[in-house]
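ok new one. same drill as before - structure tokens go in, u give me an amino acid for every spot. 57 of them this time. try not to just spam alanines like last time pls lmao
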């Protein structure tokens, strides 16, 4: 009985993986985002700045 359960679970997982791959291939694969290194650095450094205790950001 355990082997049957394992087989069924493996089959379901493979089907889910195949569906996710098909969705990614159909909708996400060709999407691109332009990234500017200076803007990324500025955004990251903005989050690092600390404010004095009690001060409003």
């Amino acid at each position: 009985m355990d082997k049957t359960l394992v087989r069924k679970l493996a089959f379901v997982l493979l089907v889910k993986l195949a569906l996710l791959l098909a969705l990614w291939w159909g909708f996400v694969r060709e999407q691109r985002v332009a990234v500017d290194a200076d803007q990324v650095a500025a955004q990251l450094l903005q989050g690092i700045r600390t404010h004095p205790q009690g001060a409003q950001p």
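The chain has a mean pLDDT of 86. and btw The chain is about 70% helix and 0% strand.
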